[in-house]
Every structure is written in structure tokens, then in C-alpha cells.
Amino acid sequence: MAYKPYKPNRGLNTKNKNHARIDDSPIKLFGFRSGLSYRMIPAMMYYLVVTAVFISSIVNELKHYSFTGADMVLFVSKYLFIGIALFSPAIFLSDFKYVEYLPLFKKKTVSSGLIGLLIVIIFSYFMWNVDLYCMSKEYKESVKAYQTEVQKDIEQMTLEQETKTDEEISMEEN
Fold first, then answer.
1. pLDDT in tens, 37-63
2. pLDDT at position 77, please?
3. CB 63: neighbour CB atoms within 10 A?
4. Confidence band of 150 (pLDDT split at 50, 70, 90)
5. At CB < 8 A and 24+ separation, what contacts does 95-98 make?
6. 94 or 125, higher pLDDT
7. C-alpha distances in angstroms, 7 versus 35, 58, 90, 96?
8. What is the dihedral angle through the alpha carbons of 165, 166, 171, 174, rounded to the nearest 10 degrees?
9. Residue 73 has pLDDT above 70, yes or no
10. Residue 17: which pLDDT band, with cuts at 50, 70 and 90?
11. Which pLDDT value is given to residue 46?
């Protein structure tokens, strides 16, 4: 089973009258190549959610953590690998010319594509953790301080909800 771009037949002489292969399609991005809405809508939702999560995580990390100069280089490297992992379907499964030179992706089969994506994601995860391990002590302390602050906020909210629930129960008993 190949993931090549197909479009509805537009008068081309083909054996299969339902679809005709169009190599010069202007849309080459994975999920949008076929032009079919049941494939395009989940792909668009995936790309939008991944982009929103990616951008918000960068902004929140810059806002809440402290960095040294070397940490900024590792920060960029870390998000480069996170971006490669998150956007790997668009990078490796789309119909761009560079894909023909990548060993596991040039076959255009489902099994080789899944194996290739799995290898890319595992490698990206490994490099992401290497970057985190190499961060400075100042960065690691700011992460722990922020996590402690968030945990205190969660505990305080839980305590407030419990007291409100206890008050509501006591009011119902009266």
C-alpha cells in the first residue's frame, strides 16, 4: 500500500476511472495530497494542534525558566528535535524531492514509512533528553522551583474545592 498523491479523474485516460495519479500536484503535504476531506480534516487538526502545543511550550518555557548562554543553544537544539518529532509526518511522508534520497521513506510503503517515523521519533526523543541532561544547574533549579510552585497551586485549589464541597454539604444538612 503506497501513499502517493491521487486526485479524482479529470478526463485522463487511465485504467482506474476513480482516481488518476497526478505527479505535478501543487499540494504535496501529507494529509492534503488526495484532496479528500476525510483525510484533510484530521491532517489539518493534527497540524494545528501540534503547532499550538509547540509554540505554547516554547513561550511558557521562556517565560517561567531561567537560562544561561549555553542553555539557549541547548534550548534551540531541544526544540529543533521536538519539532522534527512532532512534524515528522509532514517532513518525511510528504511528496517533496528530498524524500527520494531518504532510505526508509523512498519506498513509499506503509511499513517502511512507519519504521522510518519510529526511528526518527526515537532518535529525536533521545537527543531531546541529551539536551535536557546538559542544561545548567540554574536551569534545572528553575524547573524544580516552577514545578513546586505549580504543585502548591494545585494543592491549594484542591483544598479550596474540598472546603466548598464541605460547606455545600453542611448547608444542605441544615
1. 888 899 999 999 999 999 999 999 999
2. 94
3. 8
4. very high
5. 95/4, 95/5, 95/25, 95/28, 95/33, 96/28
6. 125
7. 6, 38, 19, 17
8. 140
9. yes
10. very low
11. 94
Nearest to 32 by CA among 47, 53, 19: 47
**Which amino acid is it at 118?**
L
Set of cell numbers at residue 40: 484533510
The dihedral formed by the CA atoms of 25, 28, 33 and 37, expressed in degrees to the nearest 10: -110
Cα 121 from Cα 115, distance rounded (Å): 10
- DSSP for the chain, written as a single string: -B---EEE--S---S-SSEEE-TT-S--STTTSS--HHHHHHHHHHHHHHHHHHHHHHHHHHHH----HHHHHHHHHHHHHHHHHHTHHHHHSS--GGGGGSTTTSS-BHHHHHHHHHHHHHHHHHHHHHHHHTS-HHHHHHHHHHHHHHHHHHHHHHHHHHHHHHHHHHHHH-
Q: How far apart are the first and last CA of the chain?
A: 68
Residue whose cell numbers read 502548591:
152
Give this prediction's pTM: 0.69
